[in-house]
Write a structure and sequence with these properties.
The protein is an alpha/beta fold. The protein contains 22 helices and 23 strands. It has five domains: 142 residues, Four Helix Bundle (Hemerythrin (Met), subunit A) (Up-down Bundle), CATH 1.20.120.160; 71 residues, Helix Hairpins; 180 residues, 2-Layer Sandwich (Heat Shock Protein 90), CATH 3.30.565; 137 residues, CheA-289, Domain 4 (OB fold (Dihydrolipoamide Acetyltransferase, E2P), Beta Barrel); 127 residues, Rossmann fold (3-Layer(aba) Sandwich).
């Protein structure tokens, strides 16, 4: 009776890929230390294991490849061959051939199946090890298999588990934690009621005591279950990092550069679901480091540097976050070129580009399509695709920042949560609603009064420990009504930080600290900005988790955009109206655009009055919003010229500006503006109400 191997196929492929990775990483390491006999023994045993597995499963060509590699390793171990670059090249070609053969539907035991590339590979292996392709290598006769005495001990001390099963187990343990919290609240409330009734029978008090004990035990057990499930999901970053040395070797050869690639902290543990999504972002950063971060050997000599450049991929844990960094000792970011490119692409007005901080300049690198390279290579220039890198990191609830010193190198630092499931959180109340702030984003909480709030550069701010921080009113940000804030003498603010940016968030009250199980949002809420998920509290209430990096981004530029959790103006938008927005500050323009688009308006951006006037001649807009101070043509002239045309004489124009003198207001009205809004008094709700009124 034939033995059915199909049920073992998945496990065979997974195990073979692991051994393939061991070979690849080991070969890269051994190329730098060809006399490492212990590593050579490991490589030989690994090739032997692949050969045995493949033979048993009927993958003859893979077995043949592993056999060739095993022969080569044994010859090197016996001193018959001195391993040089051509040997490692052909070994790595053998490793590369394994994956395609694994995915072929036909096993290599089937008759009549030929693969010429495999035959060519074997010929190349024989040529290299016979000395025909390597100077100084003594030709040796193949060692018959019967003469080999390789002892391989396999100990089954682990079990492969499908990732989907782990995900389901994680979800169930999360539901257990939620139920535990709910049980605790029920017991607490019941105990309070029983304690208030002194004439109840003694049996009730005993019952409450037993319930408290049961709740306590379930609390401990659920915590243990959750902890153990998370341990199973945590894997060393080495599972991902060890795939990069080979890629870096090949890229360095292709770019004709010497690269000293180092990996640090490879045993740092990270949730596998997060680790799996980090391959592409890291690969992109590493390619950029080789391609455009490091100088050529000749240039490095002129600069007094070593000919070989250094690239370091590292990981370490900081509290509840994992920090992964990619650094090089190359030329660093060319700040002047970044500024010039930003101006050319219309991202920043030329007269304002020198006002940008270093952090703001580096953040331009993450703009879609941004690159300082005149010619884009296959591996792309520094900047190309970095928007995709940031998008991937943000999707994982992380942050990415850039550090660079001219002539000394660049470092990309990524901060990621240990896991996306459990979040230690601060619960806050805003009006009748409760929200959650991840505790690792919280720096401190402070009580302030209205007198502590100042206006700095047209936006509200508070001074905390000598630092001036933008103040975000959470109710305004989320489109919620203000309740009771003005009557309070003191109220709490939460200082939060993402990367190097801090803001103060004003709330009604602090509820407390609690571990929560974060759940992803489904349609239609998954696209809501400033919200990263939801959870269920012990009382069964669903509450939303705030996306702090998004909120900090919303606070930049002095304007806070509304996130319509409870649409008001949207219900009155009969049809999609188109608004022309003239604003030369990119951050302000994008924030205003988000406010308008969140309630259904279509928005066309113009970088100054001249561009706005040109666009107005090409199509009819329902409303125009304009800043005042802009290059080429200011907002006053734009308004005046629009109002003189038959096409726009009845179209509403709103001026949003920092110019607050009576003379400026009067000039705006005389030019024909229908509304004049100061940025310091700006609220998204006020803007939308003004637009509603003007559009009728």
């Amino acid at each position: 009776m034939a033995f059915d191997k199909t049920q073992f196929l998945t496990g065979f492929k997974a195990e073979t890929r692991e051994h393939r990775q061991t070979l690849s990483a080991g070969l890269i390491k051994m190329e730098k230390s060809p006399d490492d006999k212990e590593l050579l023994k490991v490589l030989m045993r690994t090739a032997h294991t692949i050969k045995g597995l493949s033979t048993m499963m009927g993958y003859k060509r893979i077995a043949d490849i592993a056999h060739k590699m095993e022969d080569g390793f044994e010859q090197a171990l016996e001193g018959k061959v001195l391993l040089k670059k051509p040997h490692f090249d052909v070994f790595l070609k053998c490793v590369d051939a394994i994956d395609p053969l694994l995915e072929d539907k036909v096993t290599w035991a089937d008759k009549g199946v030929e693969r010429p590339f495999a035959d060519e590979l074997f010929s190349e292996v024989d040529a290299v090890f016979s000395g025909k392709m390597v100077d100084g290598v003594k030709p040796v006769a193949p060692v018959p298999l019967s003469q080999k005495h390789v002892a391989v001990t396999v100990q089954e001390d682990s079990l492969r588990v499908d990732v989907e099963k782990l995900n389901k187990l994680g979800n169930l343990s999360g539901e257990l934690v939620i139920s535990k919290i709910r049980l605790g609240d029920i017991v607490k409330n019941l105990a309070h009621k029983v304690d208030a009734q002194s004439d109840l029978p003694e049996s009730f008090h005993h019952l409450i005591k037993d319930l408290r004990e049961v709740s306590k035990n379930i609390d401990l057990l659920s915590a243990d279950v959750q902890r153990e499930v998370m341990k199973v999901r945590m894997v060393p970053v080495a599972h991902l990092f060890n795939a990069f040395p080979r890629a870096m070797r090949d890229l360095a050869i292709a770019k004709e550069k010497e690269v000293d690639f180092q990996i640090l902290g490879e045993m740092t543990q990270l949730d596998k679901s997060i680790l799996d999504q980090m391959k592409d972002p890291l690969m992109h950063l590493l390619r950029n480091a080789v391609d455009h971060g490091l100088e050529t050997a000749a240039d490095r000599r002129v600069l007094g540097k070593s000919e070989g450049g250094k690239i370091v991929l590292s990981a370490h844990q900081e509290g509840s976050q994992i920090v992964i960094a990619v650094s090089d000792d190359g030329s660093g970011v060319d700040v002047a070129r970044v500024k010039e490119t930003a101006v050319k692409q219309g991202l920043v007005a030329r007269e304002r580009v020198n006002d940008l901080t270093e952090e703001q300049i580096f953040q331009l690198l993450f703009t879609p399509g941004f690159t300082t390279e005149e010619e884009v290579s296959e591996t792309s220039g520094r900047g190309v695709g970095l928007d995709v890198v940031r998008e991937a990191i943000v999707k994982l609830k992380g942050q990415v920042e850039v550090k660079s010193v001219p002539g000394q190198g660049t470092t990309f630092v990524m901060r990621l949560p240990l896991t996306l499931a459990i979040t230690d959180s601060l619960l806050v109340d805003v009006g009748a609603d409760t929200f959650i702030i991840p505790i690792d984003m919280v720096q401190e909480t402070v009580l302030i009064c209205n007198e502590d709030i100042k206006t700095v550069e047209t936006k509200e701010a508070v001074t905390i420990r000598g630092s001036i921080l933008p103040l975000v009113r959470l109710n305004d940000l989320l489109g919620l009504p203000r309740k009771g804030i003005s009557e309070k003498k003191f109220f709490p603010i939460v200082i939060v930080q993402s990367v190097e940016k801090k803001i103060a968030i004003r709330v009604d009250s602090l509820v407390g600290r609690q571990e929560i199980i974060r759940k992803a949002l489904g349609d239609p809420l998954k696209k809501v900005r400033n919200i990263s998920g939801a959870t269920i509290l012990g009382n069964g209430r669903v509450v939303l988790v705030l996306d702090i990096p998004s909120i900090i981004g919303s606070a930049e530029g002095g304007i806070i955009h509304a996130e319509i959790l409870r649409p008001k103006a949207a219900t009155n938008v009969k049809k999609k109206k188109t608004i022309l927005l003239a604003e030369d500050s990119l951050s302000t323009a994008m924030l205003e655009k988000n406010v308008l688009e969140s309630v259904g308006y279509s928005v066309v951006l113009a970088r100054d009055g001249k561009e706005a006037l040109d666009r107005s001649a090409q199509e009819k807009f329902d409303l125009v919003i304009s800043d005042v101070l802009m290059p080429r043509m200011d907002g006053f002239e734009l308004t005046e010229r629009l109002k003189k045309t038959n096409l726009y004489k009845d179209v509403p124009v709103i001026i949003v500006t920092t110019r607050e003198s009576d003379a400026d207001k009067r000039r705006g009205m005389e030019a024909g503006a229908d509304a004049y809004i100061l940025k310091k008094d700006f609220t998204s709700e006020g803007l939308l109400e003004t637009i509603e009124r003007l559009l009728g």
